[in-house]
Amino acid sequence: MDTLSPLHSLTPSLPHSLTPSLPHSFTPSLLHSFTPSLLHSFTPSLLHSLTPMNTVICMKWGTRYGAEYVNTLAAMVRRHLSLPYRFVCFTDDQRGIRPDVETFPLPEMHLNESLPERGWRKLSVFQPQLADLTGQALFLDLDVVILSSLDDFFTVPGHFRIIRDWNLPGTIIGNSSVFRFEIGRHPDILDHYLTHGDDVRRQHRNEQAYLSHAMHAKAPLEYWPAAWCRSFKTHCMRPFPLGYLLPAKHPGPETKIVIFHGKPNPDQIRNGWHSANFLRAVRPPEWFIENWRE
To answer: Would you list the domain boundaries of the chain?
Structure first.
């Protein structure tokens, strides 16, 4: 009798993001000692607690992005990540999010809602205990388009990695649309913001500027290889009037993720887009249509 089959029977109907890898301690001899009924008791949540998992995290709050963005991001990750992982969305409204996406309430931060939206809520992922998550986490903004394998984002060495901001050359500031961190390892990042928020906001325009400087103070900041993450606005949009005539450019063969920041948003370019003053325009390219979908 195949002693692995009872355990494996738990997983075929589960989405890839909920299919765990077995801890190294699960040797064949140990499995032989388990009865089928005991093996069936190993639910995915229990297995997650036994070994750290790679986790992909996104956050959705307010009304700027709908559930479509979460579902599309989850589908892109499913197509482009071959490592075992969990896909988790922290949100204040789970309506419309597919049931195969794990959702948790937004971690509490007690932010002053009258402040300008500058991404400060993203710092809440640095809580000492983040839901039931452990191990490495890759944070992805909702407004990204994944073009190729994400495996390298988990396997490249480094304690913390972030995009080097294309618009701020000569500074250490990163773009936090894509960053990787160890869950529970940096609670001081959040604690300092919560206790010195006014000072932090005076010194840093937004969350990613503060995060970059705070992490750099702990150890020299490490960035993703430049070609992995490209800006749609900087690397893909064509100048006037070519934006009306030709599809947006492909960012390059080594690009894994395209970042949308500012305008337009991904859903705005599906049928073509132009700015209010008509000086910027986008015709949707095939690479976008092929990848930004459920």
So the answer is: 5-50, 54-227, 229-291
The superfamily (CATH) of domain 54-227 is: Spore Coat Polysaccharide Biosynthesis Protein SpsA; Chain A (3.90.550.10)
Per-residue pLDDT of the chain (294 residues; tens, 9 = 90+): 333 333 333 343 344 444 444 443 334 344 344 444 443 444 444 445 456 689 999 999 999 999 999 999 999 999 999 999 999 999 999 999 999 999 999 998 877 777 777 889 999 999 999 999 999 999 999 999 999 999 999 999 999 999 999 989 899 999 999 999 999 999 999 999 999 999 999 999 999 999 999 999 999 999 999 999 999 999 999 999 999 999 999 999 999 999 999 899 999 999 999 999 999 999 999 999 999 999
What is 172-226 written as a DSSP string?
-PEEEEEEEEETTS-HHHHHHHHHSHHHHHHH-SSHHHHHHHHHHHHS--EE--G
C-alpha angle 185-189-195 in degrees, rounded to nearest 5:
135
> How far is the C-alpha of 154 from the C-alpha of 290, rounded, in Å?
24
Q: Can you give the pTM of this predicted structure?
A: 0.83
